[in-house]
Design goal:
Elements lengths: L3 H7 L5 E12 L4 E10 L2 E6 L3 E6 L4 E4 L1 E6 L8 H10 L2 E6 L2 H19 L5 E6 L17 H4 L8 E7 L2 H5 L3 H12 L3 E4 L6 H9 L4 E2 L5 H9 L3 E5 L7 H10 L7 E4 L5 H7 L2 H11 L3 H15 L16 E6 L4 E7 L2 E2 L37 E7 L6 E7 L2 E2 L2 E2 L5 E7 L8 E7 L6 E5 L8 E5 L2 H14 L2 E6 L2 E7 L11 H17 L8 H7 L8 E4 L2 E4 L4 E3 L6
Parallel strand pairs: 1-4, 1-5, 6-7, 7-8, 8-9, 9-10, 10-11, 11-12, 12-13, 17-22
Antiparallel strand pairs: 1-2, 2-3, 5-14, 14-15, 15-16, 17-18, 19-20, 21-22, 21-24, 23-24, 23-25, 25-26, 27-28, 28-29
Length: 570
């Protein structure tokens, strides 16, 4: 806030609390790099020029960038306490996060949203929340809770709530469904931004989608998708996560065709913490963009100023008077080597100091399935041809296949090419279970199961042996959720995710060690190296992304908008 002391520091009459001396300042406002001092007072930038400070840090030879912004992510997908993820990512240069807690909301409703808000309120970063728009993701889904516009309304008063989360029910938008319109209008009326989820729409559908008031989309896979949406006025959030990696597909075309980057921002969506520690967070997006040929200052502008403009963060995303002193010190500009990070003028330390909070009892013990024997997993078939869901490495889309599979004594039999996949409802113990066939996952000699199944988060399991699949399901019920692997009757090897079946109570070092061991085991069982088994598995039950999906109600054809039989000819 402007006051006499700040004015005197800006004028050079008084020393600033902290001055970063002789920095190569990355000026995203003018697309240039200048050598100057950065004066910081009371957490904000007082001036850029020549200054003296009570404390001074020599930045000769180093580059100082605005703090990076992740424009869309789900903290629950990192498996660890939200505060730990924020700390790890902030150490990599990300100082602002736009979070959509729809995973928590699908399991635990408003209490899930509140958990994310509470666990991040003291973070050394700006953590904002988008209120989940589609809980459930589709009207027929079997999730834990359903959120109405009336239940969302109180969050509009929370200063950390920026808007409405990704609107993935495109059908409801295009059909001008009254329930959806009520949500859209409420957030528009209050001047809030609305996120989208529509990279696969055609031109006419995109136009209609934008007319509804939706302003962003993170589901573009290609340059053509991004160009179509930018032409329609959407902000394209270029995603580079653990499972979905779309940055090269989009930016290679932007660079080749010399398109403006003014409507682009970066996001991770879903990114595991071990990958963040190894390769960076939004810093990784910036590095990859530069490697593709984008000018460093343009890549950094996408990661900073553009994202701030998109979400109305007026005092973030640039290095200029009045902006928060959220800064990234780079020892190498083109390789984006992060040396130090400052949040509101204070250096982010390596160790996380976190206040331990008691986990609300209602967020624990949330997995309850109704299955008593392995025979319930049998898949009866009268034909040898079946509708098959094919996994695509590096994508969360699937391909529809109609292929010959092995049938013995009237039942599907798994082999090296085709395995069984099942989803079991786990919130109300209804006994609903959908069973299908998957190709491209290649798990052999066992089963892999998870309670993380977007977005309803029912139990999802893939395997080639019904006994192993059954054991994996019951293990997740015992632990209250998690990841588990059963191999040839051995195990199970399990990473418990006790909080809502989504988040571990352990620290990230423990989670990393366990998940790394399980990833290695999954690949030993045949899962290709290009596929992250658990993240890929988690998306196979999301019935709003093409082409085939599996839910607790059966096989769903997204493009046809209906459930189909195992051998039904489309």
């Amino acid at each position: 806030m402007y006051q006499k002391k700040l004015a005197d520091v800006a004028l050079g009459k008084e020393k600033a609390e902290l001055v970063l001396k002789n920095a190569n300042v990355i000026q995203v406002l003018t697309n240039e790099i200048i050598t100057a001092d950065i004066a910081i007072e009371d957490g904000v930038i007082a001036g850029v020029g020549v200054y003296s400070g009570v404390a001074e840090v020599d930045m000769t030879g180093k580059y100082v960038s605005p703090g990076f912004i992740d424009s869309h992510l789900h903290l629950e997908s990192t498996l660890v306490n939200p505060a730990e993820l924020i700390h790890c990512a902030s150490r990599q240069g990300t100082t602002a996060f736009v979070v959509d807690p729809h995973e928590a909301a699908n399991v635990s409703g408003l209490k899930g949203i509140d958990f994310i808000l509470n666990e991040t309120k003291d973070s050394k970063a700006n953590v904002y929340v988008m209120v989940p728009s589609c809980v459930p993701a589709a009207e027929f889904e079997d999730n834990g809770f359903a959120l109405t516009a009336k239940e969302m309304e109180p969050y509009l008063k929370n200063e950390r709530v920026l808007g409405l989360g990704e609107v993935m029910d495109c059908k409801a938008v295009l059909n001008a469904d009254e329930i959806m319109i009520e949500k859209l209008r409420m957030f528009q009326k209050n001047g809030k931004i609305i996120d989208g989820h529509a990279g696969f729409l055609g031109i006419h559908e995109t136009n209609c989608y934008v007319l509804s008031g939706i302003q962003t989309d993170h589901e573009c896979r290609s340059y053509e998708d991004a160009l179509r949406e930018m032409r329609a006025g959407l902000w394209v959030l270029v995603r580079e996560g653990t499972a979905a990696k779309n940055l090269e597909g989009i930016l290679s075309g932007v660079i080749k065709n010399h398109n403006s980057v003014e409507r682009l921002a970066f996001c991770t969506d879903d990114k595991h913490i071990e990958e963040i520690n190894a390769n960076g967070h939004i810093s990784n997006n910036v590095r990859k963009a530069i490697e593709l040929g984008l000018a460093p200052i343009e890549a950094i502008k996408i990661a900073t100023y553009n994202a701030a403009q998109c979400y109305g963060l007026r005092n973030q995303g640039a290095i200029a008077p009045g902006y928060e002193a959220n800064l990234v010190v780079l020892s190498d500009l083109e390789k984006v080597v992060v040396e130090d990070v400052y949040f509101k003028g204070s250096k982010i330390e390596e160790k996380l100091i976190k206040e331990e909070r008691e986990i609300p009892a209602e967020l624990l013990n949330t997995v309850h399935v109704k299955i008593d024997k392995k025979e319930e997993l049998a898949l009866a078939m009268t034909e040898e041809f079946a509708n098959v869901m094919e996994v695509i490495p590096g994508e969360i889309l699937t391909r529809k296949r109609y292929e010959a599979v092995t049938v013995e004594n009237g039942y599907f039999k798994a082999d090296e090419s085709f395995q069984k996949i099942a989803v079991l409802e786990r919130h109300k113990k209804t006994g609903k279970m959908g069973i299908g066939i998957v190709k491209g996952f290649h798990v052999c000699g066992g089963a892999i199961a998870s309670s993380v199944g977007h977005d309803s988060h029912n139990i999802i399991v893939i395997g080639d042996d019904d006994e192993d699949m059954f054991r994996a399901i019951k293990e997740l019920e015992r632990t209250g959720g998690g990841y588990t692997i059963v191999q040839h009757g051995k195990g199970p090897e399990t990473l418990p995710l006790e909080i809502m079946g989504l988040i571990s109570r352990e620290d990230y070092q423990t989670v990393n060690k366990k998940s790394a061991k399980m990833l290695s085991l999954a690949h030993e069982m045949g899962v290709p190296e290009g596929i992250d088994p658990f993240i890929t598995l988690s998306f196979l039950s999301l019935p709003v992304i093409p082409s085939l999906r599996i839910t607790a109600r059966g096989i769903y054809d997204v493009e046809a908008g209906k459930f189909i039989g195992i051998s039904e000819i489309r």
